[in-house]
What does this fold into?
Amino acid sequence: MNLTRVPERIGRLGELANNLWWSWNDQARKLFRALDYPIWKESGHNPVKQLSWISPERLAQVVADPAFLSLYDSVMAAYDEATSPLDHTWCHANYPNLFSGPVAYFSMEYAIHNSLPIYAGGLGVLAGDICKEASDIGLPMVAVGFMYPQGYFHQHISATGWQEEENSELNFSEAPISQVRSPGGDIALARVRLGDIDLALGAWHVNVGSTDIYLLDTHLEENPEPYRQLSARLYVSDRELRLQQEIVLGIGGVRVLRALDINPAVWHANEGHTAFMTLERVREKVATGMSFAEAQQEVRQTTVFTTHTPVMAGHDIFAIELVEKYFQSYWGQLGIDRRAFLELGWQGSPEPQSYNMTILALKMADQRNAVSQLHGQVTRKMWHGLWPDIAEEQVPISQVTNGIHVPSWVAPELNHLMANYLSENWLTRHDDPHLWEKIMEIPDWVLWAVCQRLRRKLVGAIRERMRSRWLEDNVPWTHMLVMGALLDPEVLTVAFARRFTEYKRPALILHDIKRLKQIVTSKWHPVQIIFAGKSHPADLASKNLLQQVYKIAADREFQGRIVFVEDYDMHLARYLVQGVDVWLNVPRRRQEASGSSGMKAALNGVLNLSVLDGWWREGYNAGNGWAVGSSDAAASPEEEDESDAGALYRLLEDEIVPLYYDRDVHGVPCRWVAMIKETMRSLVPAFSARRMMKDYIEKLYRPALQR
Ligand SMILES: *Cc1c(COP(=O)(O)O)cnc(C)c1O
It folds into this structure.
């Protein structure tokens, strides 16, 4: 990036653009918006691009504008405080001497901002939110992942309602990343053996406040061509390529940190994909003369493993032949033989049949956790076989319920409102339940006016997307209908936005078409439903579900009140969780580990309408949203669908719609607003990433460090 053009008075704009801290600070966002609004919009809110596109004339204008300069100065002061030595933070105040080195966090994906599209969904959002919150509370953290140039696909829906995938290539020079070089100036930082190949690894550095993320890259000239593509995409279907990626992330990730002279005090594996990092650390110790058993013991003590998958089929499992192919030259370096190596990824007595990454991680980490209370129970039951001699409740896997990074997901309008009514510095105290008692002091009409404004913003943003599709592709009218042409900003708006996958039951609400039609097309009290979400490219069943939704949305009789918005990503998610009235979530019971989009909705005063699964089992209190059906498992999936669909329609007909349209003389739905307040009061502090990170530190990192 050429930054020499930026006048010296505002010379640190480039530094700010290259630290994604700006993305969760309203004032910093405002600064880039003020810098050049059209370019800000056109760059997709990417200040790195913005600074390379902006004209010298515009720069000269802003540097002569006292209002801009004063905003610049206050943003830079806040930035310096947020990224300076961490001695004013919660972590320092409470645990000044706990961390002798950073927490090394390993994850396959990170969702930090749309200008860095290296995520697919919830797992990435969690990892991104953890990096941001670590920075906010002063937890030293280095994170390791991949710099996928193609990231995850973009979704296009054809005129027949079929999902098409488009992979675009990220221009690295326009992303907030910088290439890391070794002390000797090399791009290759480390090497990893993959079969016959010695693969060289590079890395890109990302600043997320004071958290450093290192993203591995195999696209180096010295690597043979096919291997350069190893890090091209996230979640490839090919099992061998997937194993290669996990070797690079786990083993290569440790080596890259060593090459950069980073010495973590705790190692945190996010999901089983990253578990090879534990083996590499054993190898290092064995190379210094330790036995495998001693080395394993030491590695386990300082390793934390978080599992996210309540469904057996969802775990990462490799065929024995593949594992042998890539590890036959490795197990000797661990001081163990083939059998002992394979048993690390296998549970039970007969000869190992496959290699399970979750089992490996469970055996290599002393601190293990699931991501909600219910998921903790499910997980302890699932892995009881690894600890056959103790009772199921004693299985040593605890839980830390997920949370969301509040500054990233709160609407700026609500941020402003909270600053007025809760406390000027509410964001620094947002996990304090007492602070939230004051939400009752906000006049109903004031809060309602903000909700209405956010709904209008959402409808405006959806129309803007449609308008460009209309201009670019001349899509047919029914397609415009599906994409939201007839959305009405005054109507009760429900969102179903999540990955399209069978267990999330996107089509549940279509169970009884006639009844649904009556609900949504009611003349005086209508309801509109916005769907969004991607199907995995190989998942035809889920693509069929998507097409089913599309056909209903395109049906004239639904009057344009059912909508499907393409290409669900963080940017669209922000609009949806901030702008709708009701957040719908109906996964099959025991299949959602936690879920987090409903937490984002709650933060923005959107009421949850959800099955009592995942986080909602602990969040729901009978006054802060609705529970679909009971918490008991049904006899069969068909029965579960039948009774949940019935419950869903009943709730909409008898409770939700009447409550929403019950207005006072000024048009304010006072009882609805009371539920919004109860939602925010009861859910925001408990399901914040701040509460989550404090739990990680106290329940998992501290025991790992204090042995
Ligand atoms: C929050 C989020 C998710 C995760 O939401 P779930 O509730 O787990 O479905 C997925 N994708 C995006 C883009 C998100 O912002």
Summary: Residues 121-122, 125, 498, 568-570, 573, 595-598, 600 surround pyridoxal-5'-phosphate (CB under 6 Å). The domain at 103-402+693-705 is CATH 3.40.50.2000 (Rossmann fold).
